[in-house]
Amino acid sequence: KQWYQRRVRGSASELLLFVLVWGLGVIVFSVIMYYAEEGRNDDMNSILATCWWAVATMSTVGYGDVYPKTPVGQVLGTIVSFLSMIFLAMPLTIIVSSFSKTYKDSKKGRSRPLNDQGI
Fold first, then answer.
1. Do 54 and 33 meet the contact criterion of CB atoms below 8 Å apart?
2. At what angle do helices 47-58 and 12-37 cross, to 10 degrees?
3. Could you say which DSSP state residue 44 is in?
4. Separation between Cα atoms, residue 71 and residue 79, nearest integer Å
5. Is the pLDDT of residue 111 over 60?
6. Inter-axis angle of helices 71-107 and 2-10, to 10 degrees?
7. Predicted structure pTM score
8. Which residue from 9, 32, 44, 100 could staple onto 37, CB 3.0 to 4.6 Å apart?
9. Spatial separation of the C-alpha atoms in residues 41 and 68, rounded to whole Å
């Protein structure tokens, strides 16, 4: 478990960047979708309610309880869905490869530091 703790500390900046970019995407897409659906979709009657849609869509869960009903909203929903795959894929690939390298090093018995600080 020590390799895991070292890698989490070593990946803190990547994890923080991932959370910030994802959170910013949720806010931006929520506001855009709110104005695209304003007055025509009772489920998206506030930006906060639209945030729920953005979280479900961007996390690729897609519950289906809140969804866009206008053609503009549906096109925007499709775009958000595709962009969220990119948002998830790019930083997660970096983080997973970092964890994989650290795990392989720990299996080989290497105990070298991951960076100059010894993390």
1. yes
2. 130
3. G
4. 12
5. no
6. 130
7. 0.72
8. 44
9. 7
